[in-house]
Design goal:
- Strands 12, 13, 14, 15, 16, 17, 18 and 19 form an 8-stranded mixed β-sheet that branches. This protein has a 6-stranded antiparallel β-sheet with strand order 8-7-6-11-10-9, sandwiched between helices.
- The longest helix has 38 residues.
- The chain has 3 domains: 126 residues, Response regulator (Rossmann fold); 147 residues, GAF domain (Beta-Lactamase, 2-Layer Sandwich); 189 residues, Alpha-Beta Plaits, CATH 3.30.70.
- It is rod-shaped and about 125 Å long.
- It is an alpha+beta fold and 514 residues long.
- 45% of the residues lie in helices and 27% in strands.
C-alpha cells in the first residue's frame, strides 16, 4: 500500500507539478484547513505538504492538524524563508521547509527525509508504549493465582485507556460458553448470569475468529456487529481475544461511555499485547496449579497404594473402572500370628506403634524389591510382584523380599519383646505362590480398589495362615521358578481351607542363596 501524502495548496497548477514529482506516492489535494482536517479523518495521511501564502496560513493549518493527529509529519512550502519562520515551523513539528517554486529533486529528497523521520518518531512512540508493557508482563508473570492475573489485566487496561467499563470472559468447556470471570463497571448479578456461546454476540464472534475488533459510534450502523449493539451510550469499544499458543481461552471487552474519545488502531495493538501477556501468565498459573494438583493427588494415592499404581492411575486416559486385565504375577501374603491375643492385652496407642513398625519394614522391603503393596488387612499384608510394573524376575524378587521381611521382623520382635512380655508369642507367617490373576480396579465408580483377584491370592493367604516360626511356605510353581537360586525343602502335602485338592508345599530353611 502506497504512503498517502496530502497537498494543501491554493491552485491546481501547483498540484500537477508537485504530483509529477511524487508519482511513487498516493497524493491527495485540498485548498484549505477545514478540508485538510476532513481528509486526514478519512485517510491515513502520513505527510502533509502545506503552502504558506496569503490564502493559506501554512503554520496555523499544520498546528490545527497536529492537535488532532499528533503523529502527522509536515513540510512547509513558502516563498520566503526567514529565521523567525524557521524557528516557529520546527517548534510546531514541521520536518522541513522548501522554498517555492519547489524543485522536483529537492521535494523528493525532503519527502524521503520526512518519511525516515516519521519512521523514527513512530518507533520511538512504539518503544515508549512497549517499555511499560514489559514491566506489566513481569507483574503478570509474578501472579500466583488466576484471580491475580485477571485483576492485573483489568487494572492495566484501565491505566492505559482510562476506561471504567471492562469485562473478561473465559471459555468453559463443560458448559460450551463464555462466562464473565472478572469485570469493572458491571452489575455483579448481571455479570454472574452472562453466558455467551461461541459465535454469538460480539465476544462470541471474537472468540470464534480470534481477531480483535474496534467499534466506534459513527460506524456502528455499517458494521456486521450492528445487530449486537444494544447500548446506545457506548461511544467506542474494543473486544480482544485471549490466546495461548493458538488456543483461544477468552475475550476482553472494554468500552468508553460519556466521552468523545475513540479507540484507535494503536489502542487495539497495545491491548492485544497486554492480552497476550495476561494469557501467558494464565497459562503459567494453570500449569502450576495442575502440577500442584497432580503432586497432591500422587501424594494422597501413595498413602494407600504403591508409587507404580499411583502413577498408572494418574497417567491413564481411559475410564478408571475399565483398568484391568489378566496377568501372571507372584503373590506374597504375610500374617502376624497370635495378633488377637495381643489386641486384648495391649493399649491401643502401643498396638498402633507396633503395627506401624511392621508395616514400615514390609512396605520398604517390597518397594525395594520392585513389588507392589496391594493392601493392609488388619494384621496382614498382601503384595504382588510382576505387575503393574513388569518384572521378569518377579518370583525371585518375591522370595528375596520374604527372606528380608523375616529377618527384619525377628529384629523388631526382639525389640518389642524387651519392652513387654505380651509380645512373646507374636509370630509371622508368610505364603508365596504364582499364577494368573485379575489385576485392576474393582468396585463402583464412586469407590473402587486397585487389587488382585484369583485363586492364587487365596492360596497365598491360606499358606501364611498355616505357617509359624516365621516360616516361608512356597507352592510348587514358585519352587520351579527359583529352585536353582535358593535352598528349598519339600515340606509335604498340605490341605488348605477352601482349596479342594491337597497341595505340595516347600519351604526355605536358611537365608543363604545358592
Amino acid at each position: 500500500m502506497k504512503m498517502i501524502i496530502l497537498l494543501v495548496v491554493k491552485d491546481s497548477a501547483s498540484v500537477a507539478r508537485l504530483r509529477s514529482a511524487l508519482d511513487e506516492y498516493t497524493v491527495l489535494f485540498c485548498t484549505g484547513k477545514k478540508e485538510a482536517v476532513q481528509m486526514c479523518q478519512e485517510h491515513e495521511v502520513a505527510i502533509v505538504l502545506v503552502e504558506d501564502s496569503t490564502r493559506i496560513n501554512g503554520y496555523e493549518t499544520f498546528v490545527t492538524l497536529r492537535e488532532q493527529f499528533p503523529v502527522l509529519s509536515g513540510v512547509l512550502l513558502t516563498s520566503s524563508v526567514e529565521n523567525d519562520l524557521l524557528v516557529a515551523s520546527f517548534s510546531a513539528g514541521f520536518s522541513g521547509i522548501l522554498k517555492m517554486p519547489v524543485q522536483a529533486e529537492h521535494l523528493r529528497t525532503m519527502v524521503k527525509q520526512s518519511i525516515e523521520r516519521k519512521k523514527l518518531d513512530d518507533e520511538n512512540v512504539r518503544l515508549r508504549t512497549l517499555l511499560p508493557l514489559y514491566s506489566l508482563g513481569e507483574q503478570f508473570l509474578s501472579s500466583t493465582t488466576e484471580k491475580e492475573v485477571l485483576e492485573g489485566l483489568l487494572e492495566s487496561v484501565a491505566e492505559l485507556t482510562g476506561s471504567s467499563h471492562m469485562s473478561i470472559l473465559l471459555y468453559d468447556e463443560k458448559q460450551a460458553s463464555l462466562h464473565i470471570a472478572a469485570s469493572r463497571g458491571m452489575d455483579k448479578r448481571l455479570a454472574n448470569s452472562v453466558r455467551i456461546a461461541k459465535g454469538e454476540h460480539i465476544a462470541g464472534w471474537v472468540f470464534k475468529h480470534g481477531k480483535p475488533v474496534i467499534l466506534n459510534k459513527e460506524d456502528q450502523e455499517t458494521t456486521i456487529f450492528s445487530p449486537f449493539l444494544k447500548r446506545a451510550e457506548i461511544v467506542s469499544a474494543i473486544s480482544c481475544p485471549l490466546i495461548i499458543r493458538d488456543n483461544i481461552i477468552g475475550v476482553l471487552n472494554i468500552s468508553q461511555t460519556g466521552t468523545d474519545e475513540r479507540f484507535s488502531e494503536a489502542d487495539k495493538e497495545v491491548i492485544s499485547i497486554v492480552c497476550g501477556q495476561a494469557a501467558m501468565a494464565l497459562e503459567n498459573v494453570r500449569a502450576l496449579r495442575q502440577v500442584e494438583e497432580v503432586t497432591r493427588t500422587r501424594t494422597l494415592l501413595e498413602q494407600y497404594m504403591a508409587p507404580e499404581v499411583a502413577q498408572l492411575l494418574l497417567v491413564r486416559e481411559t475410564e478408571l473402572m475399565e483398568l484391568g486385565d489378566i496377568r501372571k504375577v507372584t503373590i506374597l501374603f504375610a500374617d502376624i500370628r497370635n495378633f488377637t491375643a495381643l489386641v486384648q492385652q495391649l493399649e491401643l496407642d502401643r498396638l498402633r506403634a507396633f503395627l506401624n513398625d511392621f508395616f514400615n519394614i514390609f512396605t520398604d522391603t517390597i518397594f525395594q524389591q520392585q513389588g507392589t503393596v496391594d493392601k493392609f488387612m488388619g494384621d496382614a499384608v498382601l503384595a504382588m510382584f510382576g505387575a503393574p510394573i513388569a518384572n521378569q524376575n518377579a518370583t525371585f524378587a518375591a522370595v528375596n523380599a520374604a527372606l528380608m521381611i523375616k529377618q527384619k521382623f525377628e529384629k523388631i520382635h526382639r525389640q518389642w519383646r524387651a519392652k513387654s512380655d505380651v509380645f512373646r508369642n507374636i509370630d509371622l507367617g508368610i505364603g508365596i505362590t504364582s499364577g494368573n490373576v485379575f489385576l485392576g480396579n474393582v468396585g463402583s465408580s464412586r469407590r473402587f480398589d486397585y487389587t488382585v483377584i484369583g485363586n492364587e491370592v487365596n492360596i497365598a493367604q491360606r499358606l501364611a495362615a498355616e505357617s509359624s516360626h516365621c516360616r516361608i511356605y512356597l507352592t510348587e510353581s514358585v519352587r520351579n521358578d527359583v529352585h536353582h537360586l535358593f535352598h528349598m525343602e519339600r515340606w509335604g502335602e498340605m490341605k488348605l481351607r477352601g482349596i479342594e485338592e491337597p497341595m505340595v508345599v516347600y519351604t526355605i530353611p536358611a537365608m543363604e542363596k545358592l
